[in-house]
Design goal:
The complex is a heterodimer. By secondary structure, chain A is mainly beta. Chain A has three helices and 33 strands. Among the domains of chain A are: 109 residues, no CATH class; 201 residues, Beta Barrel (Porin). Classes of the chains: A mainly beta, B alpha+beta.
Chain lengths: 573, 234
């Protein structure tokens, strides 16, 4: 996002005029500055209001009060909360706290008017002699038991809608308590329940400490080889653009982060007993340091030591197809792995969830090694024997480049290039291997249509065995009004809520991808080459995307594939 | 394949597939009204964008964006009083008009206004968010809130190069889910990292479900578009 700052015209104006000013000037090129400005009426004017209201000679009223035409009031008049409608004559000053003052036709007010927390609505034909001050911003006052006003201390905002998350402030420490689901529903843990506190401490204007403690309760059966409880603890310190963090964890980790997002994979498993991910148990610790070079650009350096172990699938409940068997979770190459990584993130998207313009680039290089790996047996074409007598070490490169563009006010073109795989050292362990096919990257093809398994090799887990994958995606979007649903009627014949989907993107999509084994053997691609595009799998499709739900049909055109119908709960990318 | 990939039992012939895609696209285009027309005509909320007066020596003019009557719609007031925050996402784009070719998007600016009702205080909080700068104001009456929501925004983004230009303005009004609100709270607390970074534990299932349910539950959602006439920078 381009740095924005604002020059509020109202800030340059005298306080009494701020509330009435109705033009805000935004200067996007002004220097960026993180700030939270709480605007309200000037404290001295609020104090004046309270003094006026609490004065024993003031007549205090509340709610909706009217002085009809022909009436007359002499003295000091104050209203708290409500509407004060004057059509008669008032001889004396008026103060209104968090209410609206209406001067109706025929009104004749001779005295100063002070309104804080409301408007002065003055009809033609109303007369006023005296000073007039109006502040739309609410007066921070509260009424005491004896009917007087006093300053209300501003409470800190909290996420009061989150039923399972609440925050409170104790001194300088902000504590957030969380009770929620952890990541996704899956065939290993069932529905993991996550609970624990987060402590935030602002140590300075530009620095902060944070401690995040999470316990994970696993609800699936005990035959998974996974402990009933997991945990994650993370402490971090941020100073301006720099930060360091340390982690300790015992968590379930997916082998690949596609073909569905965590939430979609969870819903698929919960509803349809289809778990599109494979997992392993990871326990360890690590640290990372990062620098936010500019607002969109971040660099990160990390090192961690993991104990990675195979876990078995269990049989958690699903809404449909509950009698089916879950796909087996694969065996992995158990062992202790030390991984050093460097990561670059560039995010210039205008929005995080529904971007229409900008870049999102993530690139990561990792070097991993292990001195005690216990490898599973793989075909020699996939991986030669794991070395004995020296450390088993390998390098991995991942990048994901996304471009969002609007080429006309109503037409958008989005493109993505993603690659992941081995780049050096010994060949990957099972838990780093990759595959292709499925709703995310190649929706016109079946899940794991390309696993790189040699002919004759069969595995019920549909094991991902490729060294490398690369995919390219492009889509064209245009907005349509659909009105798929109905509109309720409000009580006074006005149209009410619309139940259903009012609008959606019409999406035309095309994808291409290839997964392969690197090497000089039969069916392999030389390590310094990318397969020719003729060998890639290509699909095309069309869909409707309403943002939170989308429906697509897609078909692979480079093979004799059947048409696939997909439902997505978020944008494709 | 099962699960999220549901397909008929047998592969249809290639021609049938192509025909299906084309027919579906044509049908959708035919039944779907243009979004802008639907939004402006079907709702009482209005969005306007106009140009500042032509007083600059080179003809540069800035856009002034204003929405009106948001609370007159009734749905949004009901939403606020139901405890759900309402988010107004404004976006202004500068388009360069190119005869005989696609117009070119040269720049865009966006900002947010988040309104929520605090029932214990019976007040409305309005957060205006420009990039990393946030302004919070509170209003005790609907009159004051209505007037504040009708503020006009003048964006100083006049194009520099010579050419023919126009501005488009988009206003998306929606409710905030609890996850969004939590993210906003973190942002307000200065935790830009947490607010912008990776999806947190506990959010993954909840975010998708909440957004989906909010969308289908009939909670209001609105998108308006408006554009200015062309002007020439010399």
């Amino acid at each position: 996002m381009r740095p924005l700052a604002v020059l509020l015209l109202l800030l340059a104006l005298p306080p009494a005029l701020r509330a009435q000013d109705s033009v805000i000037v935004i200067d996007p090129d002004a220097p960026a500055a993180d700030s939270l400005e709480r605007v309200g009426p000037p404290p001295d004017v609020v104090a004046e209001l309270i003094e006026f209201y609490n004065d024993s000679t003031t007549t205090r009223v509340q709610g909706d009060v009217a002085f009809p035409s022909g009436s007359r009031f002499d003295g000091r008049l104050a209203l708290h909360r409500g509407n004060l409608r004057i059509a008669g004559r008032v001889e004396g000053p008026i103060a209104v706290a968090n209410g609206t003052l209406h001067l109706l036709p025929g009104a004749d007010v001779r005295g100063d008017i002070l309104v804080i927390g409301g408007r002065l609505i003055r009809a033609a034909g109303a007369r006023h002699e005296g000073r007039q001050r109006v502040f739309w911003d609410a007066a921070p006052v509260v009424q005491t038991e004896d009917g007087l006003l006093e300053i209300r201390e501003r409470r800190r905002p909290i996420g009061d809608l989150a039923a399972a998350r609440t925050s409170f402030q104790t001194g300088k420490v902000r504590t957030t308590l969380l009770l929620g689901t952890g990541g996704t529903y899956n065939r290993i843990e069932g529905l993991p329940i996550v609970f624990g506190p987060t402590f935030d401490l602002r140590t300075g204007r530009r620095s902060a400490l944070k401690l995040d403690l999470r316990g994970i309760l696993r609800t699936a059966g005990s035959e998974t080889k996974l402990a009933d409880f997991g945990y994650q603890a993370r402490g971090e310190f941020r100073l301006g653009r720099f930060g360091v963090a340390g982690r300790v964890y015992s968590e379930l980790t997916p082998i690949e982060d596609h073909p569905l997002s965590p939430s979609e994979a969870g819903w698929s498993a919960f509803l349809l007993q289809r778990d599109y991910r494979d997992y392993f148990d990871r326990r360890g610790y690590g640290g990372l340091a990062w620098v936010q070079v500019t607002r969109p650009l971040r660099l990160e350096l990390s090192r961690r030591r993991d104990d990675e172990r195979t876990v078995r699938a269990t049989d958690p409940w699903s809404l449909f197809r509950n009698s089916d068997r879950w796909r087996r979770n694969p065996l992995i190459d158990d062992g202790h792995y030390i991984t050093t990584g460097v990561q670059l993130d560039l995010d210039t998207r205008n929005e995080r969830y529904l971007p229409s313009t900008g870049w999102l680039i993530r690139a990561r290089f990792e070097h991993s090694s292990s001195g005690d790996v216990a490898p599973v047996q793989l075909p020699r074409l996939v991986r030669p024997d794991v070395p004995v007598g020296r450390r088993y070490a390998f390098d991995r490169l991942f990048f994901d480049v996304r471009r969002y563009s609007r080429i006309t006010p109503s037409l958008r073109v989005n493109a993505r290039l993603r690659a992941d795989g081995w780049v050096g050292g010994d060949r990957f362990p099972v838990q780093r291997r990759v595959s292709l096919g499925g709703p995310d990257l190649l929706p016109g093809y079946d899940f794991r249509v390309s696993t790189c398994a040699p002919s004759g090799f069969s595995d019920p887990a549909l094991l991902a065995l490729c060294d490398r994958v690369v995919t390219a995606q492009v889509e064209i979007r245009t907005r349509l009004g659909l009105n798929l649903g109905f509109r309720t009627r409000a009580g006074d014949n006005r149209s009410g809520r619309f139940i259903g989907i009012e609008e959606a993107d019409l999406v035309f999509l095309a994808d291409a991808g290839k997964g392969w084994l690197a090497g000089d053997g039969p069916g392999q691609v030389p390590v310094n080459r990318i397969p020719s595009f003729d060998e890639w799998k290509v699909d095309v499709g069309i869909g409707l995307d309403a943002g939170e739900i989308g429906a697509y049909i897609a078909k692979g055109v480079s093979d004799d594939e059947s048409v696939k119908f997909l439902v997505r709960l978020q944008r494709r990318f | 394949m099962a699960g999220f990939l549901l397909h008929p039992p047998g592969p249809p012939p290639q021609r049938v597939w192509a025909f299906t895609v084309i027919a579906a696209a044509l049908a959708l285009v035919a039944v779907a009204a243009p979004r802008e027309a639907h939004a402006q005509a079907g709702n009482s909320v209005r969005l306007e964008v106009r140009l500042t007066p032509d007083s600059a020596p080179r003809g540069q003019r800035a856009p002034v964006v204003r929405s009106d009557n948001l609370l007159g719609d009734g749905r949004w007031l009901s939403t606020l009083r139901s405890g759900l925050p309402v988010r107004l996402h404004y976006r202004v784009e500068i388009w360069r008009s190119r005869n005989g070719w696609l117009d070119q998007l040269t720049r865009q600016v966006y900002w947010d206004v988040v309104v929520r009702h605090e029932p214990l205080l019976d007040q409305y909080t309005m957060l205006t968010i420009f990039g990393s700068r946030v302004q919070e104001r509170r209003y005790a009456t609907l009159d004051a809130l209505t007037a504040a929501l009708a503020f006009a925004y003048q964006i100083n983004v006049s194009p520099a190069e010579a050419g023919s230009y126009y501005y488009t303005a988009t206003l998306e009004v929606s409710t905030l889910s609890d996850s969004d609100l939590d993210e906003l709270e973190r942002f307000l607390e200065g935790d830009l990292e947490g607010a912008r970074g990776r999806e947190g534990l506990g959010d993954a299932l909840g975010r998708g479900a909440t957004r989906f349910l909010l969308r289908l539950a009939g909670l209001p959602r609105l998108r308006l578009e408006a554009r200015t006439g062309r002007f020439v920078v010399r």
